[in-house]
Design brief:
Elements: H1 20-32, E1 37-42, H2 49-63, E2 67-72, H3 77-90, H4 99-115, E3 124-128, H5 136-142, E4 148-151, H6 161-171, E5 176-179, E6 193-195, H7 212-221, E7 231-235, H8 244-255, E8 262-267, H9 276-287, E9 293-297, H10 301-310, E10 313-316, H11 325-332, E11 337-340, H12 345-348, E12 355-358, H13 363-374, H14 377-394, H15 397-412
Parallel strand pairs: 1-2, 1-3, 3-4, 4-5, 5-6, 7-8, 7-10, 8-9, 10-11, 11-12
Helix pairs in contact: 1-15, 3-4, 4-5, 7-10, 8-13
Domain Glycosyl transferase family: 229-389
Subunit structure: Homodimer.
InterPro entries: Glyco_trans_1, Trehalose_Metab_GTase, TreT_GT1
Amino acid sequence: MHAPSLSDRTIDAYTDVTGQDRLERLRSLAGTLSESRILHVNSTATGGGVAELLRSIVPLCNDLGVDTDWLVMDATDDFFEVTKAMHNALQGDGPSLTEEMKATYRTVNEENARELEDEGEYDLIVIHDPQPLGMLDHLEATMPTVPIVWRCHIDLTDPTEEYLAFVSEYTKRVDHAIFSRSGYIGDTAVPGTSIIYPSIDPVTEKNRSLDAETVSAACDRLDPLSFENPVVTQISRFDPWKDQFGTLEAYRRASEDVSNLQLALVGGMAGDDPEGLELYEQVAEEAAADPDVHVLTDLPDTGVNVLQRESDVVVQKSLREGFGLVVSEALWKRTPVVGSNVGGIPLQIVDGETGYLVDPDDATGAGERVVDLLEDDDRRTKFGENAREHVRERFLLPRQLEELLDVIVAQRHPDQR
């Protein structure tokens, strides 16, 4: 296992985006945990929403006085092939689960769990998503009194039963589980649950306000994409569930009514996702014949910020979605979003007020909603203003951190519930 390098953060940086009462509540919760040592474990340091959240949460906890570490699993390609199949199957579509796959999963988790013995004692461990759950076999023997919290970031509304049964062998042994929506709990075996919506960090390079010079320079670097003509953007990992091909279809429908329309399909490859490069190449090949479609990968955070800020409409055409924080990222920048009515997306988009919701398989409808926004500047501006306030109230990091610390306090100090 290895610890990613992290930048320093201070809770004082959030004074302008959240209420003083919440900041004081955070300090109070942190004071209760001042003698605790907390560990977060996940499977990748880059390329996904979990890693992005931990890059903010972990240093902020330390700034608040809560001794917090983050360790990332070291694993083989075979392991990530298994866990990607697991991810897909838990969202409803995956191959049969073989004994060989189970053995690979258990072996790698055992190896990583053994490395924890060199890290000293922890008072609570947060395991993110299914990949590190197999560490429980070893942790129960070596740290039997340490509470284990499982943080599930994926959509479990329609899982493949054999995979859910395999995962439930572990989840029933954790002390508490956190889901992003109540509907995700389903038949998952867990002893106790909390619902915590994910959030965006408004002070990071990806989400902070930018001066005109920075915006202009970033736009120049995105050439030949031109912001003098309408731009529609989708920013997602290259993953089949994100449906970049459906977004292409929606763009083609919108192009029938909007001249000079451009599409930016932007994404990265998560370190634990072996399908990413293959799908990127397929999307790039599909888009190659249209000079107004731009397939971009691994943009710096400032480039993503500018693209979400300067695009006329953002699309999130997911087929399944754990939460989809790129929606709130765009809304925070006053850009309306047309998104699928799946997962956490309808929690973020208020249909007809901050954007539009469409059925996940309705590319034509998505294209028509894009046209509705592109042809009405006043509506687009009004939606953008509504969007900013909606995210401010519900989906900024201090709220999520407060709710997470509430759970940790309850597990560390159950007498204070």
